[in-house]
Amino acid sequence: MVWPRLMCSSPSLYLGFVIFLVSITWQRMATSQSDFEYYNCQNEQGNYTANSTYKANLDHLLSTFTSHRQIDYGFYNLSYGQDREANAIGLCRGDVGPSDCQTCLNNTITLLIENCPTQIETIGWYDECMFRYSDRSIFGVMEPSPAVFSWRTRNASDPERFTQAARNLLESLTSEAAAGDSRLKFAAGDAEIPNYWPIYGAVQCTPDLSANDCTNCLLGAIAQIRDCCDGKMGGRVGRPSCNIRFDIDPFIQNRPESAPPPLNLPNTTTTTTTPQGNSSGIVVFIVVPLIVVIIAAVALIIISIFLKRRKLKSYSAQNLPEDEVINAESLQFDFDTIRVATDGFSDENQLGKGGFGVVYKGRLPDGRSIAVKRLFQGSKQGDEEFKNEILLVAKLQHRNLVQLLGFCFKHHERLLIYEFVENSSLEKFLFNPIKRERLDWKTRYSIIDGIVRGLVYLHEDSQLTIIHRDLKACNILLDAEMNAKISDFGTAKLFDYDQTQGNTKRIMGTFGYMAPEYAWNGCFSVKTDVFSFGVLILEIVSGQKNNRAQTNKEIEESLVSLAWRSWGNGNALDIVDPCLRNGSRMEMGRCIHIGLLCVQANLGARPTMSTVLLMLNNGSFSLPTPSQPAFFVNSAASRMRGQSQGHNETQGLNYMSISELYPR
């Protein structure tokens, strides 16, 4: 009864109350929209101080960035200052109008300042814009990283056909975008697949790139679809210099040619001279439809925002979203279901045993094959801590990582459920004289590439900076197509966002693959995994284990030592596996070169995994001369073989396990 009384006795009060409610709703909506899809403070580029010249230049640049009203084409590239110049780039999606573009960029600037208050170089993405700044020259330079990936959670019914059609569409748009001018390099279109969904796509570069750099950037982004969005019904790859997107729903707006004319509302001021009853009736007649329209509009906007947020699932955000689809309930399996699936954890279903538990093959009631890791008892972890760590690792989704499907625990039993990988581990093939014949050079090179891509994701592109710490041949699984999948995260460390290295008194991993700074001092970083990868790539090329390299000498020599000695004598290819009768000798030599760069004793001289990926896929990339590797591995293995043999000797599959993880 309150609403009719308000409406009749005090229409102005009622209208004010409605406006207040609408303003509250809009405020909440604005708050909900203020979350980044992704941002990166790029701590490795350093920090500035409060009284520095760079801060003064940056403050001036950011405060006036979108005030240049003559820019109505969605691209800003501005600088300010002479000494310690501040440079910034803002890019809006090609279909976004000037007003929305400026709003998006201003929001991005505000949140970057809040989240990266002292970082010299930062970058942030919304759905409709990208903004970055730095003290170095960033104009006209093609930069592929850091990158952001988003994808639909739903898979296409014919994933190969759908993904190929999406790639074809984006590639066809690339030339159109690259041919754009200095104001806009953007192209959008769609493609029809017979008896299937239509696909909508868009590609864009920062207009300061040359046509060739734009093409290369876009083609590189399209190639990354395989890493994030393979088989998904929608996906997006964002790079500092370009971005691509495809989806089964249209997402491009029709950019208005001009602003719409102002709405002519009835002049209600004349009603003030009418009698009170008449005035109330007229106000009610005007206000009620207006209220209905406002409420309907707000409801539609809220629904559209909700649907839009559900449509794409971003995994490169710095902070884990509160409304993440993945939760403990969706990942938890019933213990009895798993027990039945593995035939009571029977010995016949045992696939292998690792350092953290026994792995069994199982089959769920729906017919899916799974691998179940039954963790050894004795963990001091609580149930909630265990579940939280599961949720963190379950967010890792990459074609070159073994996928965690879920978990269950009952009393002292803790089980991890993974996708089943058909061809067991790389070790079972690589060091078996019969099975090794199946690993021709094309297959080995593909395995190396897959391992590199998986490590780049763990180190740079996932929500969490993850150091594996036990990378070796038995922890690389091979699927039915012999694609590599990194497994066994039992020794992994998850870094805080601004952390670049760590220290531990509990050395975990396998001697022979450990970097010297980790084995002796407990210091680890991404370069720890780089060292292990260097040993692994030498093993893949040679077909020999690092601590069992075959030489003409009577004493045992590590593979790293043998490779270094052969390199120094100009005979690097002498270590190549004799089984590799065909294949590119140049690629083999390049892989040996990369391996030696990765095992250098000086961790600062080792390349990052993203650099290794560039070295592998760009033959014109000049490789530096490696320095002497760490020779400690052979003697360390000899001294500690007795006390670590049970842990080091691989007995079978090692699927991902959880131990000592902490969120970024």
TrEMBL record:
* Membrane topology value: Single-pass membrane protein
Q: Which GO terms describe its cellular component?
A: plasma membrane
* Residues reported to bind ATP: 373
Transmembrane residue ranges:
282-307
Q: Which residues form the Protein kinase domain?
A: 345-631
List, alphabetically, the SUPFAM superfamilies matched: Protein kinase-like (PK-like)
Q: Which Gene3D superfamilies match?
A: Gnk2 domain, C-X8-C-X2-C motif, Phosphorylase Kinase, domain 1, Transferase(Phosphotransferase) domain 1
Cellular localization per UniProt: Membrane
Organism (species):
Cucurbita moschata (Winter crookneck squash)
Q: Keywords for this entry?
A: ATP-binding, Glycoprotein, Kinase, Membrane, Nucleotide-binding, Phosphoprotein, Receptor, Repeat, Serine/threonine-protein kinase, Signal, Transferase, Transmembrane, Transmembrane helix
- Provide the residue span(s) of the region labelled Disordered: 254-273
Ubl conjugation: is it a keyword of this entry? Answer: no
Q: Could you identify this protein by its name?
A: Receptor-like protein kinase At4g00960
